[in-house]
Every structure is written in C-alpha cells, then in structure tokens.
Amino acid sequence: MYDFNYHKPSSIDEAIQLFTDLEDAVYLAGGHTLLPSLKLRLAAPTDVIDLAGIPGLNGIDYSGDDLKVGALTPHDDVSTSPVVQSVIPALASLAGGIGDAQVRNRGTIGGSVANSDPAADYPAAVLGLGAQLVTNQRTLNADEFFTGMFETALEEGELLKEIRFPKPEAAAYVKYPNPASRYATVGVFMTKTSEGVRVAITGAAPSVFRATDMEAALNADFSEAALDGISLDADMMNEDLHASAEYRAHLCVVMAKRAISQI
Questions:
Q1: Model-wide pTM > 0.90
Q2: CATH fold of 170-262, please?
Q3: Which of 153, 253, 156, 137 is nearest to 201 (CA)?
Q4: CATH (residue range 5-50)
C-alpha cells in the first residue's frame, strides 16, 4: 500500500471541496473495492476522503411512493429494515444475499452502485426498479446511470447522496452466486409496474443491462413459457473460469424464469 493522506470531513460540501482542491483524491464509503486496490497497489491516490461521518447520507425512509435509501446505508440495514421488507421485499432479500455478515455490515449501497462492478447485485435492483439517483448536483435516472464496466454517469468528484426506489406492483431477485464471493455469476431483478415489466441482468455482461426482448415477451404474456423462444447473444457476455459466455447467456433465461415463479 502506498502512502496517502487521510481526511474525514463533517459535511458533503467539505468533502467535495477537499476532492476539488487535492491532487488525486478518492472517496471512501465501505471500502470493499478501494482498500483491496490500495493493498494490492492497483491504486495510488494522494488523498482518501472518508465519507462515513457525514450526516444525512445514511438512513431509510418511505414517503410519496418512493423508498429513499441514503448512499452510506450498509447492506445489513437494507436487508433487516422493516420498511424495506414491507415496501420492496425483493430489495431486502437482495441485500441479505450480498457477501457475508462482515461485508453486509461495512459495505454501503451507494459505494456498490457508484462502483458499478459488473457482478454486483445492487445495480440490478437500481435498473430493474427504475430508480432515481440523487447526487450533490442533480438527479439521474437508472437507465442513464450505468455506462460500462466500473463506469457510471457520475462526473469527477460528483457525490451520490441518495437512491429513490419507486414501489413496484411486484418484484423478485434471483441469482446464481459464485460460491466463494457470493457475487452474481448471473442475477436477474424483475419488476411488474403500472408501465410494464422491467428485467435487469447483472453478472452476465460487462455492465448491468435491461433484457428488452424478455420485457416485450412478458408484457404480452407474463409466464415462464413466454421466454421459451428467447436467447441472449453470447458474444456480449463475460467469460471467465467460473462460467463461459454461452453458459451465462443460458443462465439469464433460467434465472429470469425463476424470478417469474417468485412474482
């Protein structure tokens, strides 16, 4: 690990000012990606800005048909919240399947979403539920937020403050987890809303994506049989020692059918 300067601001404005003024600063949320990167010397920032003590970034509230989750809310809080369990139980279930107890108590929803790991669970919920992402500058729609592997629409220094999830008519999240990391080899978050079905898939491709062919088929006939003739392009899938691209393409349909059975 290279040397760096550590900062613990007490407000969002102070954190942003530090990021602007310092040479090569990074924000620290839960640290589950940043700290291993520092230890392996894959990252060498001059300054680390710890967001943990900033008020207003942690908490869960339900009002106006939106479930509002602060960016620094730990996974375990999302998983065990009676509010989340009542309003969007699929989101609570997703959070409860992340990593292990230590990860769920330290990792944060905002850190995961802003990191945009291709195998992370939360991006599927954000995209599948059509959430809005509130930053210090603006509000972004889920469909425009994830732009690639470890890439989002966040600008340099922009800070994610809150995620607003609209309440769906019904939702389910099903994943085929890596047995060691619990990351999604393939995960499918499916929702039924007044505007139709949304199907978001994580783990399969370089970035979370909506399966529009599945959505169209399910809007016409919401049944497992509606997906029988659908296949996803293996050329767009990830391939590694855990699963081939063809296997991931097949799993997308299998997991989507399982999600249907839970709605």
A1: yes
A2: Enolase-like; domain 1 (3.30.390)
A3: 253
A4: 3.30.43.10
